[in-house]
UniProtKB/TrEMBL annotation:
Family indicated by similarity: Belongs to the PDCD4 family.
Cellular component, GO annotation: cytosol; nucleus
Protein name in UniProt: Programmed cell death protein 4
InterPro entries: ARM-type_fold, Initiation_fac_eIF4g_MI, PDCD4
Localization per record: Cytoplasm; Nucleus
Gene Ontology biological process terms, A to Z: negative regulation of DNA-templated transcription
Keyword Iron among record annotations: no
MI domain mapped to chain residues: 1-67, 109-173
Length: 173
């Protein structure tokens, strides 16, 4: 939402130059920010990539700062942004750049992800991987859907191992 706000304000209320200076200040402040928020370089890198995708920053901004970055955190941030931008198609708006923004995904998409996750878990029996995938979805308020889908799968399955796997997953989470 912050990216959307900046996108709407850029050019009307704020100049591109002002925005670039703000991002540069953020890069300089990353070492201190990373002390309190260890994932700051990754999150700021995602935000930089999103800003380029939203046309708040231009792609050369990332490249030009890469050469002048004077700290490990700033370099990690710019590397993360570069990787994310290289994954986007033609620099289009990166609504999914957050990947972790589960709350921004559609309910249908989340249900499909949960369904796939549970089916793969039933086949592999890999509980730690299932836990990891559930955490990656980052939708704790949507856990009821995991329970619902697991119960439906268990009722549809004729295997006793399905019940045990689902029970183990619930006990470990």
């Amino acid at each position: 939402m912050t990216s959307k706000l900046l996108s709407d304000l850029c050019g009307t209320v704020m100049s591109t130059n002002d925005v670039e200076k703000s991002f540069e200040k953020l890069l300089k402040d990353l070492p201190e920010l990373a002390l309190h928020t260890p994932r700051a370089p990754q999150v700021v890198g995602q935000f930089n990539a999103r800003a380029v995708g939203d046309r708040i920053l231009c792609t050369p901004y990332i490249d030009s700062n890469k050469g002048t970055a004077d700290c490990v955190q700033a370099k990690a941030t710019l590397d993360k942004a570069t990787v994310l931008l290289s994954m986007s198609k033609g620099g289009k708006r990166k609504d999914s750049v957050w990947r972790s923004g589960g709350g921004q995904q559609s309910v249908n998409h989340l249900v499909k992800e949960i369904d796939t996750l549970l089916k793969e878990s039933l086949l592999s029996g890999d509980i730690p991987e299932a836990e990891h995938c559930l955490k990656e979805l980052e939708v704790p308020r949507f856990q009821h859907e995991v329970v619902y889908e697991a119960i439906v799968m268990n009722l549809e399955s004729t295997r006793e191992s399905a019940f045990k796997m689902i029970l183990n997953l619930f006990q470990s989470s």
